[in-house]
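INFO batch 0412 | record 1 of 1 | parsing
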Amino acid sequence: MSSFFNLFRILTAIVLTIAIFLSCFAVFSLFKMPSATSLLVIMIFAAPVVHSILSQALQRHMMDPNLPMKHSTPGGIRVMGYICMAIAILFLLSGTVVLANLNMIEDMALRQNPDYFKDSGVTKEQLILLFKAMCIFYIVYSTLIIANVILSLRFVSKWKDSQGDDMEILDDDSYQ
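INFO prediction complete | emitting tokens
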């Protein structure tokens, strides 16, 4: 396989690992504070999980064409890929905007609760460092998602072109 395929496999594994961790964190937060917003956060964090699982199915099929693939997998990769791309762009924009305006975030925190730093034991420098770390994490994570989606769409297209009429796809009914 090509180096792009190996990169695709590595990125899929990394994104899947991070997305599972974030999804579990979101599910646990739902138990602490049940709300509709928590459900939306779970769906946002779970989209890369679904995309990565579908991408792994494509990868297995491309490595061993004798392994069947469900009929819905290529379409699912496309749909979830575009959803993940939108989510990643939101993460990327949020991370860069907050990173560029850290002083404004600090001012907003002080306006909300002027005694925040006295009561919590957190210094301003620690708060800024926390925001920087979160922003950098989301920028890197969104970049990984975007790269993974681009590669998955490329390999779906490549797989579809190589199949022609003799597609080895299982119908959804064959798993029952």
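INFO post-check: Residues 171-176 have pLDDT under 50 and may be disordered.
INFO record closed
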